[in-house]
Design a protein that fits this description.
The protein has 135 residues and is of the alpha/beta class. The protein contains seven helices and four strands, in the order αβαβααβαβαα. Helix 3 runs antiparallel to helix 4. The two termini are 19 Å apart. The mean pLDDT is 89.
Amino acid sequence: MTPLDAYFQAQGFSTVGLLGTRVVMRTGLYGQLKQTKAVALEDEIDTLGQAYLDMAVSGVCTEAQRVMFPDAGQRLIRDRGADAVVLAGTDLNLAFDGQDTDYPVVDALDVHVDVLARLAAGQIDLKTAMGDTNV
C-alpha cells in the first residue's frame, strides 16, 4: 500500500474514499495507509462488497452496478469528505470505464503498474518504490 499512499500524498489527497471488497473497505486498505485517511460508506459495505464480488466473479458489470458504484463514489466525496475515490479492486474498472465522474477516480491497479514499470525500466529502485527516504 506504500506506493498508493505516496501517490495520494503527491496528488494532494489527504482523504480517499474506498470502493472494493468488504475487507478493503472495512480496514481502510488493510490499515496500511500512513499519510492518507481512508473512508468508506460504513452502512453500505456489505451491499457494495457483494456487488463487487458478483461483478468480479461474473466478469460482467450490470447496468445497476454501473450506476451503483459511481453513485457510491459521489457520496464518498460529498458525505465523507474524500478528495478522490479509489478503485481498490481490479474489476471496478468495469463499472467506471467510460463514465464521466465529476470527481477524481484513482485506479489502484494503475498506480501499482506504474511503479512496476518504473522498477523494470530502472527509473526507481525498490527502496524508493517502498517509500524509503533514506536511500
